[in-house]
Amino acid sequence: MRLPQISIHTTDIQMDWQIHKPIQHIKQPRAEQRISQPAATVEIHTQKGKLSIDSSQARRDLGNYPTSEMIMRYAQEGRQEMMKGISRRVREGRQMMLNAGKGQRGAIIQQIAMQNSGPKRPGPYNIKFVPSVGSVKVNYRPATVDVNIQRNEPKIDVKVNKPIHDYTPGKVKGTMIQRPRVDIDVIG
């Protein structure tokens, strides 16, 4: 017994594809940036130093007196020497008056002359430092400096530019050249 056979025959589909690729352009413009730095404000205030030197005592120690003081000093010394001279003459006159005529025959005048003659040594000698220590007075007030600085912040201005995006989508177009088919035949 013969069984019938089935014959199946298939035909594949055939397509013609037309593909247009997508086009994309991206451009990023640079950001615009402006930076400015204002200068800092600096204020400087100074007060000058002051130096004062008083050497008047040192000058006095060396014998340099102001003119008015020197005139007064010499006048006073002259007055004292005049009074010493007057008292010496009064003393010598009294001495001559009391001792005269007592048989001394001029011996009193010789005695007075001996008192006034001969080397006279001024007082004890000693070492003296001129000018004296501490006679020059120095006073100093140092200078002061005040510095004020005001810092200014930088000014930053930034403009961000958006990206430029141009996109053309792609297209796919298909055309069927051959349709698919299935043929089934029964044999026998």
Rg to the nearest angstrom? 67 Å
Task: Report helical residue fraction.
Answer: 25-40%
What structural category arises from helix and sheet content? alpha+beta
- For the termini, the CA-CA separation is 11 Å
Element pattern in H and E: EEEEEEHHHEEEEEE
Care to count the β-strands? 12
What strand order characterises the main sheet?
Answer: 1-12
Strand content: 35-45%
- Given as residue ranges, the uncertain stretches (5+ residues, pLDDT < 50) are none
Biggest sheet layout: 2 strands, antiparallel
The residue-averaged pLDDT reads 87
Number of helices: 3
Please tell me what the overall shape is: rod-shaped
In brief, what are we looking at here?
The protein has 3 helices and 12 strands. By secondary structure, it is α+β, with helices and mostly antiparallel strands.
Structural features, described:
The structure is a single chain. This protein has three helices and twelve strands. It is of the alpha+beta class. The strands form six sheets. Strands 1-12 form a two-stranded antiparallel sheet. It has a two-stranded antiparallel ribbon with strand order 2-11. A two-stranded antiparallel sheet has the order 3-10. The chain is rod-shaped, with a radius of gyration of 67 Å. The chain starts with a strand and ends with a strand.
